[in-house]
TrEMBL record:
InterPro entries the UniProt entry points to: Hexapep, Transf_Hexapept/Carb_Anhydrase, Trimer_LpxA-like_sf
Entry protein name: Transferase
Pfam families: Hexapep
Superkingdom classification of source: Bacteria
Gene3D superfamilies: Hexapeptide repeat proteins
């Protein structure tokens, strides 16, 4: 399913194959020989998304851009089932395994591997040919790659990255943080009410 969002329709190369149950919405450009499988969602929430050539987006993966964080995915990239990429840059020949999460402002260098259920956190840059092991977390600049049992170290690095401030423009210490966050984000997402299906 393809949707015009905020007045922009997806641009899909004729050699790309988009499954009937995939959703492609808004300012999205998909290059030649890409494959977008069933249940995948590629949605521009105000910023552009570009996929190079020979990109595979597997079942139930999510790719989302924001007005402040576009998404660029290079050539020969595999985005695994149930993986998500939000406002990040993925260089060429990267493998994002099942269930990986890549957050806003992150960059994954060429020929890197982010293995099953691993995380590349907010504003983290992985140099080329980096591996994030199964379930581990890459966080900070320069990145630390930490096992999930090292939560306090992950949190120390993550806190300075300021997820609510960077992504939502809100101070973490705001007493009604979730009230403000959900109301503000909800207003932004409500712009989908005017989407037009174009296929």
């Amino acid at each position: 399913m393809r949707f015009e969002h905020l007045g922009v329709e997806p641009r899909i190369h004729p050699d790309a194959v988009i499954a009937a149950t995939a959703v492609v919405s808004g300012d999205v450009e998909i290059g030649p020989d890409c494959q977008v499988l069933h249940g995948a969602v590629i949605t521009s929430e105000g910023g552009p998304i570009t996929l190079g050539h020979d990109v595979i987006v597997m079942e139930n993966a999510l790719i989302r851009a924001t007005a402040t964080n576009p998404v660029h995915i290079g050539d020969h990239v595999l985005v695994g089932p149930m993986a998500s990429v939000s406002g990040a840059t993925i260089d060429d020949e990267v493998f994002l395994a099942t269930g990986t999460r890549v957050f806003n402002g992150a960059r994954v260098g060429a020929r890197s591997e982010v293995r099953i259920n691993a995380v590349v956190h907010l504003r983290t840059t992985l140099p080329p040919e980096t591996t994030v092991p199964i379930g581990w977390v890459a966080v900070g600049e320069p990145p630390q790659i930490l096992s999930p049992d090292r939560h306090e170290e992950i949190w120390d690095a993550q806190r300075e990255l300021d997820f609510p401030g960077y992504v939502f423009g809100l101070d973490r210490s705001t007493p009604d943080l979730m009230v403000q966050l959900t109301e503000r984000y909800g207003r932004s997402l409500a712009r989908h009410v005017d989407d037009l299906r174009v296929d």
